[in-house]
């Protein structure tokens, strides 16, 4: 077509397209800008504790210097969207009441959870990843999922003992009522969301044992500290 000369408009357009295609075929891997891989510090860890009414609490520690760099509550993690957590709790309580009523009447029980919980999980995971990047954390430490049932029972029992000291029957009644009223979170779903977002960001995750006693901040801190100590022990 080039040798022929005197090309009309359509032929020129076709020729240009053909030449561009040939150039791309000859250079299938152009020098595209590459995003640098995330490089975290192995001594900086983010511990994430899971609680009954506080789905996630974060502690960022410098394990080498035995120093806490920052804490983040669930309210701080969610920021302006913290009200979604209260809405999710209200939805769960309403669904729980409807299920209970349906069971009493032997009616079909098909009340499911809305997608709001999954959305909050993603918000929490994104916030945790952002904090890890800010402090250049090498890993995020999350609790063992199978330990959460024991954690929840222990927390409810502790609350019941403080509320009704010395009265077993009153403690049992309080514990039962508290279980019905408190928010029941899908910890497995939240953990998977954190692991998924961390993997995309190039941040490793570790599994640790969450202590039963202490505040959410202390549990998150100890979770990260113990994970670092176990890691160091394997190097000896």
Task: Please give a handful of descriptors for the protein shown.
8 helices; elongated; 5-stranded mixed sheet; 5 strands; single chain; alpha/beta; 2 domains; 236 residues
Short description:
By secondary structure, the protein is of the alpha/beta class.
Task: Return the average pLDDT rounded to an integer.
Answer: 81
| Termini Cα gap | 73 Å
Rg to the nearest angstrom? 27 Å
Described by the principal axes of the CA atoms, the overall outline is elongated
Number of domains: 2
The counted number of beta strands is: 5
Listing every helix as H and every strand as E from the N terminus to the C terminus, the arrangement reads HEEEHHHEHHHEH
Strand percent estimate: 5-15%
| Unreliable residue stretches | none
Q: Work out the helix count.
A: 8
Strand order of the largest sheet: 3-2-1-4-5
Helical content (DSSP H or I, runs of 4+)? 40-55%
User: Would you tell me the structural class of the helices and strands?
Assistant: alpha/beta
User: How would you characterize the largest beta sheet?
Assistant: 5 strands, mixed
